[in-house]
Amino acid sequence: MATLHTQDELARSMSQAFSFLEAPRGDEGELINLSAIESLPTFESSKKKMLNQVHDHCPDKKQIIQKVLKVIEEDHESFLRCIRDRIDRVGIKIPQIEVRYKNLSIEGDVFVGSRALPTLLNATLNAIESFLQVIRVVPFNKKVHKILQNVSGIVKPSRMTLLLGHPGSGKTTFLRTLAGVLQNDLRQTGEVTYCGHKLSEFVHQRTCAYISQHDIHHGEMTVQETFDFAARCLGVGTRYDLLVDLWRREQVAGIKPDSDIDAFMKATSMSGQESSLVADYVLKILGLDTCADIMVGNQMRRGISGGEKKRVSIGEMLAGPAKVFFMDEISTGLDSSTTYQIIKHLKQMVHIMDATMVISLLQPAPETFELFDDIILLSEGLIVYQGPCENVLEFFENVGFKCPKRKGVADFLQEITSKKDQEQYWFKKDKPYRFISTREFAHLFTHSQLGHNLYNNLASPYDITNAHPAALAKEKYGVSSLDLLKANLAREWLLMKRNAFLYIFKTFQITILSVITFTLFYKTSMKSGDQLKDGGKFMGALFFSLLNVMFNGTAELALTVMRLPVFYKQRDSLFYPVWVFVIPIWLLKIPISVIESTLWTVITYYTIGFAPSVNRFFKQLLTYICVHQMALCLFRFLASIGRRQVVANALGTFTLLVIFILGGFIVSKDDIDSWMIWGYYISPMMYGQNAIAINEFLDDRWNTPNPDPRINESTVGRVLLSSRGMFKSDYMFWICIGALVAYSLMFTVFFILALTYLNPLGDSRTVIPNQDEQSKHPKIAKDEGRDMVAKRRGMVLPFQPLSLAFSHVNYYVDMPVEMKTEGIKMDRLQLLRDVSGAFRPGILTALVGVSGAGKTTLMDVLAGRKTGGWIEGNISISGYPKNQETFARVSGYCEQNDIHSPHVTVYESLVYSAWLRLAPDVTNESRQMFVEEVMNLVELNPVRDSLVGMPGEDGLSTEQRKRLTIAVELVANPSIIFMDEPTSGLDARAAAIVMRTVRNTVDTGRTVVCTIHQPSINIFEAFDELLLMKRSGQIIYAGPLGHHSHQLIEYFQSVPGIIKIKDGQNPATWMLEVSSSSVEAKLSIDFATIFANSELYMRNQNLIKELSTPAPGSNNLNFATKYSQSFFTQCNACLWKQQLSYWRHPQYNVVRSRQQDLMNMLGAMYAAVLFLGGTNTASVQTIVSIERTVFYREKAAGMYSPLPYAFAQVAIEVIYIGIQTFIYSLLLYYMIGFAWSPSKFLWFYFFVCMCFIYFTLYGMMLVALTPNYHIAAVTMIFFLSFWNLFSGFLIPRPQIPLWWRWYYWGNPVAWTLYGLITSQLGQNENLVDIPGAGSIPLKKFIKDFLGYEYDFLKYVAVAHVAWVALFFIIFTCSIKFLNFQRR
C-alpha cells in the first residue's frame, strides 16, 4: 500500500472537497453541524483513520480484490448502482461534462495526384518549392483538403453516443478535435467547449481521453503491468475528495455503508499504489483477467491477440480519472459477442456514473447498436444526423428511405449516403428515385425538428454557473512529481529486466572484443630507441578502446526509437512530464556504463601493457565510463531527432563520422584547417581521446629523452602527444573529464527538449487523385449495384474448379515454457482436435469461433502456411493428396495482417501480383483488363495511385489496406481462396463491398472459405455453409446455414436448455452466445460430443469420403514448371517493383557522404570506408526487414523463387550505390587531395563502389540470417568492430601478431584500404619525414610500414568481387532456406 497523504495534503484536499462537493440546497442545519465537526481537533486524524480502514476491514488486500471482483463479475450494473446509491443518499452531486462544438471546420494542405508520391524527384522539388515559398518567389500550390465542414452539435453526459461513418468521412479527425489532440499540420476554425469553457481554460488532456485505433504498448510488459502503470501515473482524480466528503456526510447522518462498496471505494481512491484495484476492476470488465499476466507482445515477442491489444488500449485510459472518452474504432479484431459485452459495461458506467462517451465503431451488430442512446452520422465531413437512436430511422423514412427488416440499422446508415447503395432503400414507389447527396441530407436534418432543437440548444449559451467545480481538471498531472519519478523508475527497471538478453549479449560482446584486443596488442613492448614507433601501437590500442566504448552505445539508438511511439502517446495524455521519462533512463544506464567499462578495462589494461600505475588504471576506467555515458546520451538525443529507424541510423552514423574525424586521432589537430578548428573543440570524442592519451603518455615511463632533434619536445611521451596535436598538461585530464560530463548533461537536456517539442513523423495520408489523372484510367466495370454481369466479367479467366476435403486433422505445437512451469508435464500442446470438413466449388463457407478457437490455425494448416508444429490427418484436393507446391499455384490466401510493400501504389501492387501469378498464356491486354476489373470490384479506383505505406504511419487506411489484400489474391485467379478475417477493420459498407466481391467470386465456381469475427446479419447469411469451432479446437457444427439461417437455428434449438433466438437477433451473435463454454458448464454438455453423435456429422463424413475419391477421368494437379512465370520474367518483375520502391523512398536514399599528412590521408579513407559503408549496412537492414515479411507471403503464394527476389533486391541496390558512389568519389577525391588522374580516379571509384556494395550486402545478409531487425543490428555492430580492429589502420599488418594475421586477410575493409592506398600512392616516390628515422620514399614507407605492394593491386580487385559474390550467395541461400516467420 502506498504511503498515506500528509496532513497538509489532506487539509488541502479537504478544502477542495468542500468547494466542489455540494450538499442539498436549503439544508443549512446540516452544514452548521458539519462546520462544528470540522473544527474539532480530531478531525484530521479521523480522515486518516477513514483511509486506513481499508486495512482494518480486510488485512489481506487480495481478499478485498477477490471478493469485490466476484461481485463485479456476477452483476456489474448492480455493483455500480450500489456505489451511486451510496453517493446519492447523502446528496453529493457527481461532476457531469457536456461537450459542444460549433461551426467546426478542419482543413489541411495536400499535393494531388502523382505529385503526392514521395519519389526522389518529388522530395527534391518539394524542398526547393518550400524554400522559394518562404521567400515568396513562387506561389503556394498545394490543394486545400476539407476534412470537416462547419459541423455543430452537442455531446451530452450520461448518454452513450455512437459515431458512424464510412472510411475517409472524418471520424478520427472529429474525435481528435473534440479531444483537443488535433495534428499540428491541420487548421481548425470554430470552437469546442466543455461545460462552456474553451479547451485553453482547463487541462483537457486529463479531463478527456482519446483512444486511438492504433494499439501502441510496450510489448515487454504484461497486461496487468500496463494497467497498473497507467493507474499509477494518471492518479485518482476527484475520487479521493469525493470519498472524504462522502465519509464526512455519512458520519453526520449516522449511515453505515456496505462493507464491500466501502472497501472498493477506499482502495480505488488511494493514488501512488504499485498495484491498483482500479486496474483489476478494468481487467475484469474488459474480460482481460484471463491474460493479465501475459506480455502484450510485439514483432519480437509473442503476446496477446490483436483483439486483446485493442481492449488493453481501452483499459489503459479507463484506469485514469478522465470523465470524457472518445474511442476510435475499438471493435477491430473483436468478435461480436466480446464487443457487445464491452459496450454493455461501458454503457453502465456512462448511465450510472454520468460519464460522457463517444465511440466510433465499424460494424456494430444490431444488439450492440441498441446499447447506444445517441448517434452521430458523419459523411464527407458533414453531419447527416445527430440525435437519439430511436429517431434515426424515422428521419430517413421522411426523406424516402426505409431500412429492410433483416438489415442492421448501422449497416443501413453507412450505406444510405453511398451513390452505389442508396437506391435499394428507396420505398416511395409512387415517386421517382433520385440520388440524395450528403450535403442535401445535412440540409434536411438542419431543417428537421431534431435539427431545430439541436441548434436552439446551441444558440443558448451553456450556463457556467451550473457546471460542477470539479468537472474540469485544473492540475496538469495526477500525482506528485516524486511519485511519477518512482513509477517511471520501476517501469524502466522492469523493461531492462525484460530486455536482459540484449544487455547480456552486449556484455558477452564486449568480453569477446576485449579478449581479442589484448591478444592483438598483448604486452606491447617498448624497445629502447624505438619508443616512438611503439607508441603508435599504444595510440592505436587506446583509440580502438575508445571507439569500441562508443560503438557499444549504439544499441541505445534502436531501443529509444522503439520506445518513442509509446512515449508520444503517454506524453500527449499527460501521464508524466518529459523529464520524468528521461531521468530513469539516464540513471539506470549508469551502472551499465560502469559494468561494461570496468569489464573492458580490467581485461585489457595490464594485458596490453599500459602504464602500470593503479592511479592511471582508475583514471582510464573513469574516462571510459564518461565516454560511454556521453555516447548513450548522444544516441538517445539523435533517436529523438530522427524518430524513425532509417533516419536515426543515418544521423547516428554521420555524427560518429564527424566527431571521430574531428576527434584528434584520424586527422591531427594541427592539420585541421583554421576555419574548421571549432569542430575539433566541440567534438566530444576529442576530450575522450585526449584524456586517455594524457593519462598514458604523461606517465613516468614515457619520460625518455626525445631522440629526434627536429621535434621541439623534451620527452618521447610529449612527442607522441604533440604529433597528434593533443594537450600536454596533467590538469587537462580533469578538464576533459569535466567536458565529457558536461556533454552528457547537455545531450540529456537536448533529449528532453526534443521529446517535448517534436512530434512523431508521418501520419495516415492517402493521395487525393487529380481529376486529369483520374480521367486517364479506364472504367471497365459499371456500377456494382446495377450491373452484376459487368462485375463478373473479370472473374471468368480460365480456371479449374477444385474441392478441398480434410479428415481427422490434428495439430500440435511445443508446450509453452510458461505452462511447463505451472506443472504441465506434456511436451506438446494440441491446438486442433480431430477436425474434419469439406469445402466445395461454388459454396461460400464461413469458419467461425470465439477468439482462440483455432480458426486461423486450421486455415494455416489447410493452406500449408504453418512453419512449425506437427500435423496429423488427411488433406485432399479434388480426391488427390495435397501437394503444397502445386497447391500454391491454384490457391490464394488473404492474411489477417495486411502485408504489402509500402513504397508501391495500389495499382502497381495488383499489376505485380497478376504479372507473376497469372498463367503465362494470359496476354498483357487480358491481364490489364483483369486488374482493372478487380480494382472496380473491390472499389480501389479512388486510391489506385496512393502509396500503400506503413500501417499506422502513412499511406492507406485500415480498410483500404484490407481491400488491397483481397484484391492482390483475386488477381491471381485462384481456384481455392482462403480469407482470414476479410472484414476485420472494415466499416459495415466496406465489409458489404468485400463480401459482395467474395460472393461474386464464389458464383464463378471457385471454392472460398472465410474466417469471420463479427458479421452482420446480411454478411453472415451471404454464406452457404458454416464450420463452427469451440475454444478447444474442436468442431461443433459443420453444415448448411439455410434460408435466414433456419437450419443452424433448428440444430442448436434442438439441444435441451438452449434459449430461443429473438426476433431480429443476429444468428451469428446468438450462435456464439448459446455455444459458449459458460453455457456448456451451466447445462453440463459438450457441443463437440453432441455434433459427433449427430446425423449432420454422418452426412459430413459421407461427403468427405466422396470428395476424397478422384472423379472418373480426372487428373491430379500438375504443372510443367514450379512457378507460373519464367526465371527471366520473375527477375524482371521483382526488379521493377524494387526500382519503384527505392525511387519512392527518399529518406533511405538521402542518408546514403609529412608522415602525419600520410596518416591523415589514410585516416580520411578509413573513416569514409568504415562509416559511410556502415551507414549503408545499417540503413538497408530496416528496408530488407520490411520487405522480407512481404517476401514470406509472396513466396508462400508461389509467386517466384527466392533467386529472382534476391537478384532484384541486390540489382536495385547496385544501381543506386553506383550513382551514390560516383557523387561520393568526386567529393572524397577532391577533399582528400589525390592527384587528378583518370586511371587513379577509376581505381578509387571501383574500390569505394565495391566497398559500399559489400557493406550493403553484408547488412542484407545479416537480416536474412537473423529472426528480426534488432538482432541483426546488434550482430552488425559486433562484426563491424572486428573489421575496424583488423583493418590495418589502428595497427598495420606487419605489426599484427602472427596468430591474428589470418583475420586481416579475412577482413573486407582491410582489402579496401589496401586497394585505395596502393592505387593512389603505391608508385609515389616523394620523400616523407618519419620521426626518429629521417626521410624515406613514400612508396617504400607504404611497403615497409603498412605492408602494401602495388603489384598486388589486381588481386585486391579480384578479392572485392569475391566478397560481393560471397555475401550475395549467403543472402540468397538464407532467403531460400531460412524462414523465421512463426505460424
UniProtKB/TrEMBL annotation:
Biological process according to GO: hormone transport; regulation of secondary shoot formation
Pfam families, alphabetized: ABC2_membrane, ABC2_membrane_7, ABC_tran, ABC_trans_N, PDR_assoc
GO MF entry, a single one: ATP hydrolysis activity
Listed Gene3D superfamilies: P-loop containing nucleotide triphosphate hydrolases (3.40.50.300)
Transmembrane segments: 500-522, 542-562, 574-595, 621-639, 646-667, 731-758, 1162-1186, 1206-1230, 1242-1265, 1271-1290, 1302-1321, 1355-1378
Alphabetized UniProt keyword annotations: ATP-binding, Membrane, Nucleotide-binding, Repeat, Transmembrane, Transmembrane helix, Transport
Membrane topology, from the record: Multi-pass membrane protein
Keyword Lipid biosynthesis: no
Protein localization: Membrane
GO cellular component terms listed in the entry, alphabetical order: membrane
Domain ABC transporter span(s) in chain numbering: 132-405, 804-1057
Database matches in PANTHER family: ABC TRANSPORTER DOMAIN-CONTAINING PROTEIN, PLEIOTROPIC DRUG RESISTANCE PROTEIN 1-LIKE ISOFORM X1
Family, per entry: Belongs to the ABC transporter superfamily. ABCG family. PDR (TC 3.A.1.205) subfamily.
Name this protein carries in UniProt: ABC transporter domain-containing protein
Species whose genome carries this gene: Ambrosia artemisiifolia (Common ragweed)
Lineage: Eukaryota, Viridiplantae, Streptophyta, Embryophyta, Tracheophyta
